[in-house]
Amino acid sequence: MDEAIALVIIGAGGHGRAVLDVAVSANRKVLAFIDEGFGWAGHVRRSNYPHADNMDLQSDFAFFVAIGDNSLRQKIVQKTQSEMPNVKQATLIHKTAYVSPYASLSPGCVVMGQAFIGPNCRIDEGYILNTASHIDHDGTMQEFSSLGPKACLGGTVKLGRRSIIAIGATVKHGLEIGDDSLLGAHSYLHQSMPDHSIYKAYQQVFMNIERLEINTSKVRMLRFFDILFSGTALIVLTPILLPVCLLLRITGEGVVFYAQPRIGRNGKVFNLLKFATMLKNSPQIGTEASQ
Fold first, then answer.
1. pTM of this prediction?
2. Averaged pLDDT of the chain
3. In whole angstroms, what is the distance from residue 254 CA to residue 246 CA?
4. How far is 164 from 128, CA to CA, in rounded Å?
5. 168-200 b/e with 16+ CB inside 10 Å = b?
6. Is 125 helix (H, G, I), strand (E, B) or coil?
7. Around Cβ 157, how many Cβ atoms within 10 Å?
8. Which of 149, 162, 188, 231 is the most buried (most CB within 10 A)?
């Protein structure tokens, strides 16, 4: 493609900003942004890049779909090609990236800063190679797949259509990853993945307490066993507890129990009864001793 042809970027979100950075680095002239939502209107105006309300532009241009979602990017590319069959897709490569002269890149690919593509790699249409990511020799990246920042693929790896290698993930050489699959961030993949699969190195589960559904019958059963076991323990330990109560009553300050406030369910305050084995003013004594 003639790199002198001006560029129209479809998509004015976060990925659109990243693509603009690559285009500027590659000395590509940007005519306008096209975005139905146009959530980035202010930034476009500040950057002196106009917004095109439709594709009826007067001058010759190439288009680039700057949508991070792989499936959505494919749909928009196909729609644009059907509406404007004579308009070509651009391929954008940041000036700090390295692409082997023996690698092949299809239209619609973006190679961001400090990325590396080794010899004999085949990069198909609509591929995203993010910042500082790495594809070793003889890799095959199929249509509309993407490689996250600092992700690394070993030699002869094949990545399926619309699949995602997330931030910092590593794929062992010689493996295949199926279509529409996801390798989670910072994972190490040592075996091939089938279509429509997800692999994560670790998983964290976040629970919203406000939406936690409580099984009423289970709570009642737990409460029943709490009372049963604590009542049984009191009966069994009574021969030991009664002499302790008597000793506390006739010695020390004559107080048997100490009530300590605690916060329970729904923020309700209750008193926890403990044997009064310390003096009443022991906290003040400790404070004075430390001064």
1. 0.65
2. 83
3. 9
4. 10
5. bbbbeeebebbbbbbbbbbbebeeebeeebeee
6. coil
7. 25
8. 162
